[in-house]
Amino acid sequence: MVRRKQELEPSIQPREFHSIEEIDRAAAKLERRIKELEAVNVQDAVLNHTAADDNAIHNLRSSILEIYGEHSPEYSRHEHIRMWAGPMFINMSRNQVIEATERGRAQTIGIVNGLIDRLKEKREELTDTVTPSPLATFSKLNLHPRIESVARQLFLDGHHWDAVFAASKTLLNMVKEASGEYDDDGAPLVRKVFSKNNPILAVNDLADRTDQDEQEGIMHLFEGAVMAVRNPGGHSFPEGSEQRAVEYISMLSMLAYIVQESKRRS
After folding, report:
1. How far apart are CA 238 and CA 230, in angstroms?
2. pLDDT class of 21 with cuts at 50, 70, 90
3. Which of 137 and 170 is assigned the larger pLDDT?
4. With contact defined as beta carbons under 8 Å apart, do 137 and 242 qualify?
């Protein structure tokens, strides 16, 4: 009979966290519970029976259950957590009850902080093993506003290469606007605008050979963006991974910043 009873008892099942976002949500929930505990006026709760301490503990128990699960070691250990520390006996004075409740609050907050610290450890472990998704990478990019305005929603909607093509067209429009050259387009346009010999838009002072080499290099970057991205995009743009699309958009954004920072020469 004893063996049968043991077989029916559920085994301990540690919670497995599969993403950093899951861990962050769990830690944030426990941090809210700490704030609720800290906000309890213990003296008022004991003397006037406001139940504020009971509510804070109930919320904490519920959060531990939601985060870790019914059969987790954390819930098994803290299922009956109380805002109380020390002995409890008949005819305790109200001051004694207040002191025991205050000690219990400090102890409980320490326990919750311990849970948060372990979540942070799990987060660090997961960070070391998880490669950020292209979407997460895209969201963190500091894109040029003009590029972001045309590419962001397309990318988020899953049209990654449409976003790349839209960004490339916007970049060429920026070159035309900054240079005042509207008669040319594509590679001829950027060769003329960023030429090292007589550029319309200069990326430096062109004071020496090093400056001229940089100017020519920037010209080739724009030329490559036109020939490898904008031109194919108008016909049959090559499909590829989301990550590669992110890299193209990031490159186009960099070139957009260069246009913005370039000096127009008479």
Report:
1. 11
2. confident
3. 170
4. no
> The whole model's pTM is what?
0.52
CA distance 242 to 213: 33
Alpha-carbon span 201 to 266, nearest angstrom: 9
171 pLDDT band, cuts 50/70/90, is: very high
- Those residues with Cβ within 8 angstroms of residue 69's Cβ, 6 or more apart along the chain or in another chain: 13, 15, 75
Q: Is 87 exposed, middle or buried (0-12, 13-18, 19+ CB in 10 A)?
A: exposed
Q: Residue 21 contacts by C-beta under 8 Å, 6 or more apart in sequence?
A: none
Strand partners, 188: none
Residues 43-46: contacts with CB under 8 Å, at least 24 apart: 43/98, 45/101, 46/94, 46/97, 46/98, 46/101
The residue count of the chain comes to 266
Collapse the DSSP code of 202 into the 3-class scheme (helix H, G, I; strand E, B; otherwise coil) and give the result.
strand
d(CA 18, CA 23): 8
Q: For 5-9, 38-42, 128-132, which range has the lowest pLDDT when averaged over its residues?
A: 5-9
Is residue 112 within 8 Å of residue 34, measured between CB atoms? yes
Tokens 């954004």 label which residue? 253
Tell me if 249 sits within 8 A of 164, measured CB to CB.
Answer: yes
Rg (CA), the chain: 31
Buried/exposed 46-70: b ≥16 CB within 10 Å, e otherwise: beeeeebbeebbeebbebbeebbbe
What distance in Å separates the CA atoms of residue 259 and residue 212, rounded to the nearest whole number?
A: 17
**Does residue 79 contact residue 63 with C-beta atoms inside 8 Å?**
no
Q: Name residue, tokens 């998704």.
A: 133
Q: How far apart are the C-alpha atoms of 166 and 173, rounded to whole Å?
A: 11
3-state secondary structure of 223: helix
